[in-house]
Amino acid sequence: MKWELAIIAATVLAVAAVSRRLTGTTLTPAMVFVLVGVLVGPLVILAVPYASAAAVVTKYGDALDGKVIVDITNPIAPDSKGFVTPDGSSGAQEIAKAAPAGAQIVKAFNTLFSHVLTAGPAEGRPLDVFIAGDDAQAKTRVSAFIESLGLRPMDIGQLPMARTLENVALLQLGLVAHSVKHTDFFLGVNMLS
Ligand SMILES: NC(=O)c1ccc[n+]([C@@H]2O[C@H](COP(=O)([O-])OP(=O)(O)OC[C@H]3O[C@@H](n4cnc5c(N)ncnc54)[C@H](OP(=O)(O)O)[C@@H]3O)[C@@H](O)[C@H]2O)c1
After folding, report:
1. Using the 8-state DSSP alphabet, how is residue 83 labeled?
2. By the 8 A CB rule, do 9 and 26 touch?
3. CA contacts within 13 A on the Cβ side of 149
C-alpha cells in the first residue's frame, strides 16, 4: 500500500511541476488529484464542484467500486450563509448515496484553500488535513496519503462529522469576508501538551 501512495504523491507533484514548466501556470490540486485518482489510485479525489459531484460519481459507477472516494467539496449556498444539502445531511453523505456499495467516502481537504495546499508546510509545521469517514481502513489509507504529502491528518470521526468540516469551510468564508480579509491562512490544531 505504501508504494501505491508514494506513486500517487509523486505523480501529483510531477504533474503539477510539468504543468508549471510547460505552461507557466500551476494546475490546481483539484485538477491534479482527479487526474491521478482516476488513472492509478486506490483513492479517487472527487475535486469537482459539489453541484456536479453526485452526477460524476454516478457516471463512473462501477469504476469506483472498491475505491476510497475522497470528498473535498463544499456544498455551500451562493450567499455563503448555509448549505445546499438537505437538513440533517452533508455533502459527503449525499455523495455516498450516489456511490457504489463497495466504495468508501472520506471527507478531507475541504478546509484548505488550494493555494495554501499547493504551498505546503507553513511556518515550519505541516498543514492539518481534517478527515471524517465511517471506514477505519479507508481513513488509514487517506491518512497515509496525507502524510506522504508532508501534511498532518487529523481524524474527527464518522462520516456525519463531514457536516462539521463543511461548517469549517463556512467559518473560513466568514473570516475572509469579515476579519481576515484574505485567503492566505489555514485552520489547524496547536498542541499545547
Ligand atoms: N479552490 C479551493 O481553494 C478549494 C478549497 C477547498 C475545497 N474546494 C472544493 O474543491 C472542489 C474543486 O474546487 P476548484 O476550486 O478546483 O473548482 P473549479 O475550479 O470549479 O474546478 C472544478 C473542476 O471540476 C471539473 N468539473 C466540473 N463539472 C464537472 C463534471 N460534471 N464532470 C467532470 N468534471 C467536472 C472542471 O472541469 P472543466 O474545467 O473541464 O469544466 C474543473 O476541472 C470544489 O468542490 C470546491 O468546493 C476548493
Report:
1. B
2. no
3. 25
Residue 10 CA, ligand 1 centroid: distance in Å: 22
In which domain, by residue range, is 131 found? 46-178
If one counts the domains in the chain, the total is 1
> Do the Cβ atoms of 109 and 129 come closer than 8 Å?
yes
How long is the chain? 193
Q: What CATH number is attached to the domain comprising 62?
A: 3.40.50.720
Instruction: Give 6-75 as a DSSP string.
Output: HHHHHHHHHHHHHHHHHHSSPPPHHHHHHHHHHHH-SEEEE-S-HHHHHHHHHHHGGGGTTPEEEE----
Tens-place pLDDT, residues 39-70: 566 899 999 999 999 999 999 999 999 999 99
> Which residues neighbour 35 within 8 Å (Cβ) at sequence distance 6 or greater?
15
* Count of helices and strands (H, E) across the chain: 7, 5
Mean pLDDT, rounded, for 176-185: 98
Ligand 1 neighbour 38 (Cβ under 6 A): no
Ligand 1 and 113: CB distance under 6 A: yes
